[in-house]
Amino acid sequence: EANLLRLLSVLTPFIYGIILAFLLGPFVRFFELNIFGMFRWKQSLKRLLAVILTLLITLEVTILFFSFIIPQIVLSLGSISVKLPEYVIILENLLNEWMAIINLNQDWSNLILDSSENLLQSFISTIQAYLPKLLGYSWQFTKTVFNLIVGIAIAIYITLDKERFVLQVKKFHYFVFGQKVTDDLIDLSRLSLNMMHRFILGKALDSFIICVICYLGMLLLKLEYPVLISVVIGITNMIPVFGPFIGAVPGALILLIVSPIQALWFILFIIVLQQFDGNYLGPRILGDSMGLPSLWIMFAIIVG
């Protein structure tokens, strides 16, 4: 097991490179055929320009996205940390009101409050214990960034010389499995990769639209921290079936501390939003991107 983990650690840049080449492949092919295809240049030059254009657009979109999102998230987290003592007092008062409503005696209320204080102290102690490990986390982050940079270089090599790599893999499979089995595997792989590309792109578009709708809806409902919560909703929406519910939990907890009424409105809004996404937007986008009617997408989601 240790040797396997060590091998995977060494192969991490190549894994990143293969994943990036897989994700960027459709964009490279689109630019190569539709933009540079009209010029009578060498195929290698068209491929190189398509790769450069894809990387530049990806980098620009990533920078614009994070330049807008990161400051808003930092601002939201800073506001939460500043208002945390006030939120704790509000939560304690809310607990006392609920205890009075359900006629909970004083002994039980003291036990709950003491348990909450002990839990908070344990949480603080855990954070203090893990602070010395920040250096290790920093090294791991640096290593991940390095592997990602190397992975980008590997993805460029794979994309530029894709036909040669495919030919080498095909020869290897011909040698191991024979021609007929290899041809069937190639057809299945092409169909699967095409469906995976369309699904990922369609799901990404669906999650982006849900993120924007969630942000606008939270603004209209005047809920706190719309950017932070909407980004969490959009990211977790990429997870099939359970993603929307996973993303709604931290947002509801944050708003519950701020105001139970806001948390209730948020939960109702997320239920309506996910019904819209699951029954209309998701099947329509994924059906269009994968070449399937919306009915079969809904069938696959419900039955699966």
Describe the SSE topology.
Blueprint: H1 2-34, H2 43-101, H3 106-130, H4 134-160, H5 162-177, H6 179-220, H7 226-236, H8 243-258, H9 260-290, H10 294-303
Helix pairs in contact: 1-2, 1-4, 5-6, 6-7, 6-9, 7-8, 8-9, 9-10
Q: Calculate the mean pLDDT score and round it.
A: 77
Gross geometry: elongated
Count of runs of 4 or more consecutive helical residues: 10
The first-to-last residue Cα distance is 33 Å
Major sheet summary line? none
Strand percent estimate? under 5%
Element order, helices and strands?
Answer: HHHHHHHHHH
Helix content: over 70%
Point out poorly predicted stretches: none
Query: Structural class, from secondary structure content?
Result: mainly alpha
The radius of gyration is 25 Å
Let me know the number of strands. 0
What's this model, at a glance?
The protein is mostly helical. It is built from 10 helices and no strands.
Give descriptors for this structure:
mainly alpha; 10 helices; elongated; 304 residues; single chain
Can you put this structure into words, describing what you see?
The protein has 304 residues and is mostly helical. It is 89% helix and 0% strand. It is built from ten helices and no strands. Helix 5 (162-177) crosses helix 6, helix 6 (179-220) runs antiparallel to helix 7 (226-236) and helix 8 runs antiparallel to helix 9 (260-290). The two termini are 33 Å apart.
